[in-house]
Write a structure and sequence with these properties.
CATH superfamily of the largest domain: SPOUT methyltransferase, trefoil knot domain
Strand order of the largest sheet: 4-6-3-5
Structural class: alpha/beta
Oligomer: single chain
Number of helices: 9
Distance between the termini: 43 Å
Strand content: 5-15%
Largest sheet: 4 strands, parallel
Helix content: 40-55%
CATH topology of the largest domain: Alpha/beta knot
Number of domains: 2
CATH class of the largest domain: Alpha Beta
Length: 234
């Protein structure tokens, strides 16, 4: 998310290549130099094929799970932090199907509370209190190593067939969130002073429901009918 130093992007790509991961998405990069990296030895293809997008929703695509990384210091996260060594077991318990996105913040600020509200879970690398944050490339390397060590390297493309019982993708959830927010605005539930905080909690609530495609279709239809009734004064 918003990386500025091309060396860090290259180091992240090399770490991905070291452990068998291939797909990199860069959100809102510093455009003049983000592809000008010389630290991606052996991982040039990852950098050249990386997608550059302007929003998190674009980055997540069809991912059914989004996991954010954070040191968790000096902020109220509203949810528990998952230690990195426990992350593989958490994935197995969720029986994650399809794509799982692992989100890293910028070198300077990390991920904001708004960015983290898109995440189903938050992972923390167990660093010491006196120096909690890590270099971007090193953080990618440590996470990739843990996933590879647990045998979770993607050895084949995810299945493309979409079933109603599959977990809802990030883009579908964002559409559902947008519609819910509009309805709440229309009925006057969202107040100016608390609007932002309430929407963050709403996004987390939608994630925690663990909706399937079928669930999202039903809930989206309900919200669409409510919105239609409000707009038509019935």
């Amino acid at each position: 998310m918003r990386p500025r130093n091309p060396l860090n992007i290259g180091a992240a790509a090399r770490a991905m290549a070291n452990f068998g991961f291939r797909e990199m998405v860069v959100v809102a990069p510093y455009n003049p130099v983000w592809r000008e990296t010389r630290s991606a030895l052996g991982a040039e293809e990852i950098v050249t094929s990386a997608r550059a997008v302007q929003s998190l929703v674009e980055a997540f695509g069809d991912a059914s799970l989004v996991v954010g990384t954070t040191a968790g210091s000096r902020r109220n996260l509203d949810r528990d932090l998952l230690p990195l060594p426990d992350f593989p077991a958490w994935l197995r318990q969720r029986k994650a199907a399809g794509l799982v996105a692992l989100l890293f913040g910028s070198e300077k600020t990390g991920l904001s509370n708004e960015h983290l509200s898109y995440c189903h879970a938050l992972v923390r690398i167990p660093t010491v209190v006196d120096c909690p944050s890590m270099n971007l490339g090193q953080a990618v390397a440590v996470c990739a190593y843990e996933l590879a060590r647990a045998g979770l390297v993607p050895t084949r493309p995810p299945r493309l067939t979409v079933h109603l019982s599959d977990p809802t993708g990030a883009q579908s959830l964002d559409h559902l969130f947008g519609r819910a927010a509009r309805v709440l605005d229309q009925v006057g539930y969202l107040k100016p002073k608390s609007r932002r905080a309430t929407l963050l909690k709403l996004r987390r609530l939608i994630l925690d429901l663990e909706l399937t495609n079928h669930d999202a279709k039903i809930l989206g239809g309900i919200l669409a009918q409510i919105e239609w009734r409000i707009l038509n004064g019935e």
